[in-house]
Amino acid sequence: MCVLLASCTADDPLGSPPPSVSGPITTSLSTGITDTGDSETETGEDGRDLTSDCDPLADLLTECGPNQACDVETLECVPATGSASVDEACADTSECAPGLVCADQRCQTLCDPSVEGDDECADGRICTYADEPLPGLCAEPCELVTQACSIAGDACNRGLGPGPEPVAVCTVNPGAGVEGDACQLDGDCFPGYLCTPAQLHTSPCAGDADFCCTPICDLLILPCFGLEPNCYPIGIEGQDSAGYCGVF
User: Fold this and answer.
1) What is the CA 180 to chain-centroid distance, rounded?
2) One-character DSSP codes across 49-82
3) Residue-by-residue DSSP string for 92-107
4) To which H or E segment does residue 22 belong?
5) Higher model confidence: residue 63 or residue 118?
6) Rg of the Cα trace of the chain?
7) pLDDT class of 248 with cuts at 50, 70, 90
8) 38 contacts: CB under 8 Å, gap ≥ 6
9) Cβ–Cβ contacts within 10 Å for residue 240, how many?
10) DSSP 8-state class, residue 163
11) In angstroms, rounded to a whole number, what is the distance separating the alpha carbons of residues 154 and 140?
């Protein structure tokens, strides 16, 4: 039996959040590339056809040649003169070192989250699905309860990675929604809150929205209180007791 002021585990844990809730991890892509409409064949220093489709996830030297990168929107080889490294600020991809893209105003590493078990991200980062046309981005892992991210303005939210379960990664977090506020993504909520289904809450979401923000909880160290007494675990590896507050 659950006590109102105690944290209780749901009989039927929710498992993975809907894709529309955890969502892609990036909100804006800046390529700095302008389509001039010129379809004439362009060749590189080694005679390579730079206008044929390239693979942004493949070896750049093989795909495009020296001092070139593969534009993720046009899939064409473009000059690469940038030098900014991972997590450094950027206005567009031309400022980033070859192989990086400018997403959410900082240089980030591309990856393919559809390949489970592929360890293509460095420094322990996790390959997480991103907004089109990006295949995926390497994101900093984090713990939902502690919300410790290395970049100011980020929050620890759910993401979709190679496996069937959600992952916890640091994402750009412009939102300030708190308990009951309508949302579409975790990033719409204030750090420490997640975007959750309305039917799991005592009161309707603001504006009768389908999803609203609710506090993150932990079955062991950060229980739920008041009208939302139950902590729903969401199945993140290594954070089995972490979830969000709701009711049966």
Assistant:
1) 23
2) BTTS---TTS-HHHHT-TTEEE-TTT--EEE---
3) SGGGBPTTEEEETTEE
4) helix 19-22
5) 63
6) 21
7) low
8) none
9) 14
10) S
11) 10
Tell me the β-bridge partners of 49.
Answer: 43
Q: Could you give phi then psi for residue 242, rounded to 5 degrees?
A: -85, 140
Q: Does the reported pTM lie above 0.85?
A: no
103: tokens are: 């997403």
Return d(Cα 30, Cα 194) in angstroms, integer: 27
Give me the pLDDT at residue 38, please: 44
Q: Is 207 helix (H, G, I), strand (E, B) or coil?
A: helix
β strands within the chain, DSSP E: 8-9, 29-30, 68-70, 77-79, 100-103, 106-109, 126-129, 136-139, 154-160, 166-172, 193-197, 211-218, 230-233, 242-246
Q: What's the confidence (pLDDT) of residue 52? A: 65
Average the pLDDT over 215-220 and give the result: 91
Q: Is the distance from CB of 173 to CB of 27 less than 8 angstroms?
A: no
